[in-house]
Design brief:
The chain has about 100 residues and is of the alpha+beta class. About 30% of the residues lie in helices and about 35% in strands. A three-stranded antiparallel beta sheet has the order 1-2-3, covered by helices on one side.
Amino acid sequence: MKALWTYNAQAKDHNQIRKQIRSALLSAFINHYSRSVQETLYKMAEAALSATDSISTITLTMPNKHHIAFNLAPFGRTNENEIFVVTDEPFGFISATVDRA
């Protein structure tokens, strides 16, 4: 994942702000069920903006890899959405920019 943000003019301690943003991003990523990359990006950006008033905008970019359920039928078993295979295609990146507007 790639994260870029814009500091407000009044931002002072950039190292501390970075720690707050990183913590918020990780917490949002870990603590919600992701229905889509887009939803995850938005939740993470929203958390970063809520964590500090020292940034005005944040842009997040994540890979968009598809996963399909592995067919266990040849082995006489069923797969109840537990085992997935990452596909090579389609593949790309999804990016979102969220600001305080």
